[in-house]
Design goal:
It comes from Xanthobacter autotrophicus (strain ATCC BAA-1158 / Py2). The protein has about 120 residues and is an all-alpha fold. Helix content is about 75%, strand content about 0%. It has a domain of about 80 residues.
């Protein structure tokens, strides 16, 4: 058995309760439309922020008179960027897992709270 949290969450979601009647279509929609769209939007926002930070750094480095300091600032930025990509990939994996698991859960009626009392 794999100890990954992603696989444990999928196993729990697929084994508890019965999915809604149209769950194959919901899974298909989430797998081939919602997940790629949400993941690409998330990654595009991240890349946009990284590019903006890189351009700002390059603008600051153009004014730098010491090449050693400029090189060390760029190296520090690249190291920070690599760490940011690592955390971004974890966020995307969590986003995809949440989207895929939501397709296996029965839908709740919109007008009732989750624990409505019987009258």
């Amino acid at each position: 058995m794999n100890d990954s949290a992603v696989f444990q969450g999928l196993a729990r979601a697929l084994s508890t309760g019965s999915p809604p009647v149209a769950w194959p279509f919901a899974v298909w929609k989430n797998l081939f439309f919602d997940c790629p769209l949400a993941a690409s939007a998330h990654v595009q926002q991240f890349v946009g922020r990284q590019m903006q930070e890189q351009v700002q750094l390059l603008n600051d480095l153009a004014k730098e008179h010491n090449p050693t300091a400029a090189f060390s600032r760029e190296a520090a930025f690249l190291q920070q960027s690599a760490l940011a990509w690592n955390s971004e990939l974890l966020e995307v994996a969590e986003l995809v897992q949440t989207r895929l698991l939501s397709a296996t859960q029965p839908e709740k009626p919109q007008d009732q709270p989750p624990f409505a009392r019987a009258a």
